[in-house]
Design brief:
2 copies of one chain form a homodimer. Chain A has 430 residues and is α/β, with parallel strands linked by helices. Chain A has one domain: Alpha-Beta Barrel (TIM Barrel), CATH 3.20.20. Chain A is 39% helix and 22% strand. Chain A is built from 15 helices and 18 strands. In chain A, strands 1, 2, 3, 4, 5, 15, 16, 17 and 18 form a 9-stranded mixed β-sheet that branches. In chain A, helix 4 links the parallel strand 8 and strand 9. The longest helix of chain A is centred in the middle third of the chain and has 18 residues. The termini of chain A are far apart. At the A-B interface, helix 2, helix 9, helix 11, helix 14 and helix 15 of A face helix 2, helix 9, helix 11, helix 14 and helix 15 of B.
Chain lengths: 430, 430
């Protein structure tokens, strides 16, 4: 196959510094970044005048297929929300629902500038199919729950190994598989130990929810006289390959454990606020050198997948939590949504910044709009004023997924119709 | 002049209940709401299939012209932000800057579904000119600051009276003028007493900032042994015509004073978070029957004017503040952004709901988009997943300001260019 090139010219790059320039893509990689305006030949030329070029955003905690449950139930206590609404619906989920839900989420993510996601759910080969078709990048894991039952545990091992076998390193390397123990309280120590062993053996990442609610910490203290991260340290579970979602209720000692083990944290501010879980001590973790990235969580508790909203909220929530407006500045939340996300997923050599040699995962944001005028500081605008809908063009792995707001890889009308039908089918079964 | 009619058909109305239907507008008013699908004649017919119809949103605290300072400075301590960035720029503001800044804000508000605003700033006749041209509704006041100086005070009286004389009840009644004492600490008791007297005499509203920061409350306690609302009560300033912005730091006794005097509160969650002012006890005020509405504050501390963001953040911030996900449900924040805003501005008989006899201030939100799919509960989608950019059509006072995302009343490209030039001019003077 011949080499394909794309030239993005007249843009403003938000890379190590903010500068005017052009970016040349060859196949799946960035091969040149230049100020040379006369450089003008490529198979495809994108004139990005008035647009800012950033790395594709990285969403480090999601349950993609749950977008079918968006708006199903809100404003409820957590137990009623789960027991009466989410779990009854999940009991009827089939592979086709998961495929369609993931396709809807992929479409939403493309339109709002996210090119990589970290997903935990069920029927993950069906989710992989949606990721493959949509052209984005995904680290996927089967959500393992054994509830301390041996039969269930064996089933979870089997499904996890099936997904690894079937999906890991597929779709030109865009799809990778991780191990997904749900939480320290829904998974037995046996399961967690198996996960740790497999991760070491196969070099896989681990994706887990830890310390989302105050109740989880209290239960852990009651049951084990240890806080969740202390327990995980005790069973030698923690390590640099662990991506811990939420991590809202943390002691200082736990932050030290997170740092010492180089555990990666996925902060989900909008979900934590909507479910009233609490305010994560993100600024304390960052001050201690912890790698904190951003996730949206599933659309059932957000209710969208827009990382621009997540960036703004992450910054503002830390400012008001600390009563200090200097905390978590604009440039820092942009890092959290890009290179920190890439680092969390072990992809920091490939994506997360605009650099020669890296994969071409690139997003253009249109700045010629009232809420981004006047144009002064693009980083401020990206963090505090832009919305997902300002994204105009999205490239992942060197392929143009959306151009000037037209999604090229999926039929938008068809996906919305499939999603409505799948949601209706699910409701009728529940 | 002949009667003009507009029929909006096949829509989903979010009025007292959610229902399918059509709305007939005659001149500036809603004259019929019907389920009759055969009703099909009007000068202009808008087919709103797939769209949800809501009242135009009401933004009860703004400094419109400050959109020229959007992104000028962020992530700074309040005193440095004001002393080194905002005030030096404001010192060079002229009428033309204020006109252009307000025009930019009006354009942004139209595009995100806001049809009424409550504005405090300088050169308010220039702001009125922008509001007039843009077709939206505004309650405008000159921001009065005397710093306890008699000469300054006289100047503020003069400017306030000039603006009332020139602008009150202009633009077919779309523009009204209020009295705008800046704060209880930048205005002398003499000025506040004059404002109270004029408000009673002329039946005007009063727009003031109260208890935005913890420091303001501490200073008030040090200077007067009273908290800000206690002081205002003592000088007989409070009343149902007072719109108090921010009101972040409140004692229980102050909430009772606010309720007893039927003071209207404008809650500005994003600004309060960005400036690290604090978390207003909104749920406590609502539980006590206080009328709380929503404002964006100026774009320099937000950094946009999107009331959809403000609705989501208001709800989520109260949930996490109370660690209770049932607090401030979707339907309540929608009320805050519509009828509560109208009530705050004394316009509840005219706008804020979709009812026969009210002014036709109407917004259509496009639901056929990935982040609003599946379509289950439009109120949940409006509060938790929609963004300003989902607004497709905006009508104010019976006039179509934007149709299918095309702004009809202003030349968007021209306004953006004027704003860039005005911002540049302002920077060069500072």
């Amino acid at each position: 196959m011949e080499t394909q090139t794309i030239l993005i010219k007249n843009t403003t790059l938000v890379a190590n510094e903010v500068r005017k320039g052009s970016v040349l893509i060859e196949d799946d990689k960035i091969v040149d970044i230049t100020d040379n305006k006369s450089f003008n030949s490529a198979d495809e030329i994108i004139d990005a005048e008035g647009k800012v070029l950033i790395p594709g955003l990285v969403n480090t905690h999601n349950h993609l297929s749950m977008s079918l449950m968006r708006g199903l139930a809100d404003d409820l206590p957590l137990d009623i929300w789960l027991n009466d609404h989410i779990w009854p619906m999940e009991a009827h989920l089939g592979g086709e629902h998961c495929y369609v839900g993931a396709l809807l989420s992929a479409l939403e993510m493309i339109k709002s500038g996210t090119t990589t996601c970290n997903d935990m759910y069920f029927f993950m080969d069906e989710v992989a199919r949606a990721i493959d078709e949509s052209g984005i990048r995904g680290l996927l894991c089967h959500g393992m729950i054994d509830l301390f039952d041996e039969e269930k545990r064996k089933g979870e091992y089997k499904e996890t190994l099936r997904i690894i076998e079937k999906c890991h390193n597929t779709a030109d390397g865009r799809i990778k598989v991780a191990l997904g123990p749900h939480t320290p309280y829904t998974c037995s120590p046996e399961l967690l130990n198996w996960v740790r062993k497999k991760a070491d053996e196969k070099g896989l990442k681990i994706h887990i929810h830890v310390s989302e609610t105050q109740k989880e910490v209290e239960d852990s203290l009651n049951d084990r006289k240890k806080r969740p991260f202390e327990y995980l340290e005790d069973i030698n579970f923690l390590g640099p390959d662990v991506i811990a979602a939420h991590s809202v209720w943390l002691s200082g000692a736990e932050i030290a454990l997170i740092k010492d083990n180089n555990v990666k944290i996925s902060h989900n501010p909008l979900s934590n606020m909507k479910l009233a879980s609490g305010m994560s001590p993100v600024s304390d973790m960052l001050a201690n050198g912890v790698c904190v990235s951003l996730g949206t969580d599933g659309a059932a508790s957000n209710n969208n997948l827009d990382l621009f909203q997540e960036m703004k909220t992450a910054s503002l929530l830390q400012k008001v939590r600390n009563l200090d407006p200097t905390v978590l500045p604009a440039s820092k939340v942009l890092e959290m949504a890009t290179i920190n996300g890439a680092t969390a997923l072990g992809m920091e050599e490939e994506i997360g910044t605009i650099e020669v040699g890296k994969k071409a995962d690139i997003v253009l944001v249109d700045m010629k709009t009232p809420h981004l005028t006047p144009y002064r500081n693009p980083i401020s605008h990206l963090a505090y004023s832009a919305e997902g809908s300002d994204v105009s063009t999205v490239i992942c792995n060197g392929k143009i997924l959306m151009r000037e707001k037209e999604v090229l890889v999926l039929d938008e009308v068809e996906v919305l119709e499939m999603a409505e039908n799948a949601a209706e089918d699910l409701t009728s079964r529940s």
